[in-house]
Amino acid sequence: MRPLVPPYVETLKAYVPGKPIEETEREYGLKGVIKLASNENPLGPSPRAVEAMRNAAAQVNLYPDATSFHLVRRLAAHLGVKPEEVVLGSGSNELIELLIRTFTTPEEEILLCKGSFPAYRISAQAHGRAFVEVPMREGFRYDLEAMARAVTPRTRMVFLANPDNPTGTTFGRKDLETFLAAVPKDVLVVHDEAYAEFVDWPDYASAVALFHAHPNLVGLRTFSKIHGLAGIRLGSAVMDAKLAGYVHRTRMPFNLTTVAQAAGMAALEDAEHVKRTRENNRVGLRFYGEELPKLGLTLTDSHANFVFVDCHRPSGEVYEQLLRRGVIVRPMAGNGHPTCLRISVGTPQENARCVAALKEVLS
User: Fold this and answer.
1) Which of 46, 212, 294, 311 could be disulfide-bonded to 267 (CB atoms 3.0-4.6 Å)?
2) In what residue span(s) does the Aminotransferase class I/classII large domain sit (predicted)?
């Protein structure tokens, strides 16, 4: 009898998300648990988006606009690109899947950075695509020179997370352009910039500013982080119009709900919420940077809305003890970093509680 699934599905390990608050409270008999595990916006969703979603909910008996006409044009204007260069997805995860499905074949390979965002590897394997992983260099940073050397005639697509998730490290415009110059033009380079809005570094470059000069470059963004809309699943990709046309052929109709489209439109108008989120993040990164080294922990230079912490001991034990104190963080052993935790920036009160809990655990 034939197997129920192909071998690449049989051996696939599913993505493990951050532990939910309700589950933790139920499992440990706790109240008032805080979650600093999934890089969510601690200030909540854009208030304008909340109001827009309430109004849009009255229309959910109707199918949504399959082209997301108004949101595509509003986002294109916001980014300074043409509407035909924008593709929207149900979170950037759907766009990752669409890019793999549209542009790669089972005979080709996808090039990844080992220890970076696991969704790339999971999506590649789920589609039966071979992938090659290049180790990070010292400091938990992408080794773009080694990745360029790893490109072969079979390489069809490269994923770059910049800033990286889970390490928070980033690379600048010069390094990115050097990499793009070294990669054949028929290799798609997907620049995942989910945390770009948090970067405060003049050397950083977005794919939005470079894809016209490099038609094989694709930029991914999300409304989950800076706009606080993780629960509605809304992501975007910017790319050459010809590439976008092919992605639309493989995209399922009605992939964005009416509520998501309304939320995205309103969030783009809420500059005040974005400003407050960035400021809260700057304060939180500075606080962690000052307090965590006092506990003997080592941090990367994070440009995102989280810190990547080396505990210099098995991080699973630290994670478990934090759970018992009502603080959820993210252990990184499953991502190839057995002594590390990823800790999201919360409110000042949440950050202080996390540091106090860590002090108890590590003492």
Assistant:
1) 46
2) 32-358
Q: Which domain holds residue 342?
A: 7-45+272-362
Are 21 and 61 in the same domain? no
pLDDT at site 38: 96
Same domain for 82 and 210, yes or no, is: yes
Q: Are residues 266 and 278 in the same domain?
A: no
Residue 77 sits in the same domain as residue 207: yes
The reply to whether 297 and 249 lie within a common domain is no
Q: What is the mean pLDDT of residues 109-129?
A: 97
**Separation between Cα atoms, residue 326 and residue 21, nearest integer Å:** 9
Tokens standing for residue 162: 């910049």
pLDDT value of position 16? 84
Check whether residue 126 and residue 261 sit in a common domain.
Answer: yes
Q: How far is CA 359 from CA 30, 167, 291, 318, 354, in A?
A: 20, 22, 10, 11, 9
CB 156 within 8 A of CB 105: yes
In angstroms, the CA 8 to CA 15 distance is 15
Statement: residue 104 has pLDDT above 90: yes
Give pTM, 2 decimals.
0.96
pLDDT > 90? residue 17: no
Specify the pairing of strand 130-134 against strand 327-328.
unpaired
CA dihedral angle for residue 178, residue 92, residue 119, residue 177, rounded to 10 degrees:
0
Contact present, 33 and 235 (Cβ < 8 Å): no
